[in-house]
Amino acid sequence: MKPQHFLLLLLFLCQGGGLQAQTSIFDALTRPERGKGAVTILQPPAIRALVDSHLAGLKTESDGGRDYMTAPGYTIQVFTGNSQRRSKDEAFSKKDQINRIYSEASIYVDYTAPFWRLRVGDFLTYEEALCMMYKLTGSFPTFRNEIKIIRENVRIFLN
């Protein structure tokens, strides 16, 4: 694949936007969209209740009144440092800068001795993380040398 084609494909994927949170697949299917036909689902209420019942047995946690599960995914590491006071200040400073532009993104400052880390996002796919990484490097060119995609467990918010 030529580099130009790869860049066009990547830009197309990035412009697609993030995934919208749905209460169920039935809501997504029956949501009216301009220029498309209407979908009507006729079924007993018991079937709708069964569709997401497999999630009920999974372990959920809560953070600030929002329930979530964890799953394998990706985050973007923006900063890491081991100078105790300076690294902490720098991590929170960069968090504030990112939060001003990308307020909808999940941003985490983590301390695991002796390192302070700043990570952005909970992405289920590498492509989502890559799109956000390009947005971050475009918005913050001075962060470019430290930004990288990390594979780890991410939060999937349920409400």
Protein architecture, described:
By secondary structure, this protein is of the alpha+beta class. Helices cover 36% and strands 28% of the residues. The chain has helices at 3-15, 25-30, 45-51, 84-101, 126-139; strands spanning 61-63, 66-81, 107-112, 115-123, 148-157. Strand 1 (61-63) and strand 2 (66-81) form a beta hairpin. The longest helix is centred in the middle third of the chain and has 18 residues, at 84-101.
Tell me the series of helices and strands, N- to C-terminal.
HHHEEHEEHE
Q: Show unreliable segments.
A: 16-22
- The separation of the N and C termini measures 40 Å
Helix content: 25-40%
Total E-strand runs: 5
Multimeric status of the protein: single chain
Mean pLDDT: 82
**Proportion of β residues?**
25-35%
Give the helix tally: 5
Rg, Cα atoms, Å: 19 Å
Sheet with the most strands, sense and barrel status: 5 strands, antiparallel
Please state the overall shape, judged from the principal axes of the Cα atoms.
elongated
Structural class: alpha+beta
List strands and helices in order, with pairings.
Blueprint: H1 3-15, H2 25-30, H3 45-51, E1 61-63, E2 66-81, H4 84-101, E3 107-112, E4 115-123, H5 126-139, E5 148-157
Antiparallel strand pairs: 1-2, 2-4, 2-5, 3-4
Helix pairs in contact: 1-5
